[in-house]
């Protein structure tokens, strides 16, 4: 399997769910392969075979935890927390994820906040994010 990572975020995810691998059925897990372009980005828990900068943010109070991972390192993202990965090497990389759900999904913060249809009321977003309406308009136009 080869997944193209030539897109705006520089990564592509190929999910392996219970419908393709019957042995996963009822185990509440799934697998994924993530292909990263150089400096590509994506955001799910996985084993990382190249150099990656990863992190997550806790809630109340928000605290950032980061680590640079090298070949063979593992990293676990707590369920439900905002997290990220970035391939900081100038070469392609592949990661394999183990997900704690039989049918995983992703909510991309920027797409959900700035690209929903219909759009979230600008007053709600400017108050929640503490940003100027002009910046909000610019961010929504990019989604």
UniProtKB/TrEMBL annotation:
Keywords: Apoplast, Glycoprotein, Manganese, Metal-binding, Secreted. InterPro entries: Cupin_1 (IPR006045), Germin (IPR001929), RmlC-like_jellyroll (IPR014710), RmlC_Cupin_sf (IPR011051). It holds the Pfam family Cupin_1. It comes from the Eukaryota. It is found in: Secreted, Extracellular space, Apoplast. GO terms for molecular function: manganese ion binding. Mn(2+) binds at residues 46, 83. Oxalate binds at residue 43. The keyword Metal-binding applies. PANTHER family: GERMIN-LIKE PROTEIN SUBFAMILY 3 MEMBER 3. Belongs to the germin family. This is Germin-like protein. It comes from Linum tenue.
């Amino acid at each position: 399997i080869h997944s193209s990572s030539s897109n705006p975020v520089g990564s592509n995810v190929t999910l392996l769910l219970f419908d393709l691998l019957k042995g996963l059925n009822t185990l509440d897990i799934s697998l994924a392969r993530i292909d990263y372009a150089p400096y590509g980005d994506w955001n799910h828990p996985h084993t990382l075979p190249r150099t990656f900068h990863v992190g997550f943010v806790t809630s109340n109070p928000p605290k950032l935890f980061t680590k640079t991972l090298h070949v063979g390192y593992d990293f676990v993202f707590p369920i439900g927390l905002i997290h990220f990965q970035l391939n900081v090497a100038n070469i392609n990389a592949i990661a394999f994820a183990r997900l704690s759900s039989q049918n995983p999904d992703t909510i991309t913060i920027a797409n959900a906040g700035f690209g929903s249809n219909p759009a979230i009321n600008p007053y709600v977003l400017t108050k929640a994010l503490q940003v100027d309406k002009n910046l909000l308009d610019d961010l929504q136009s990019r989604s």
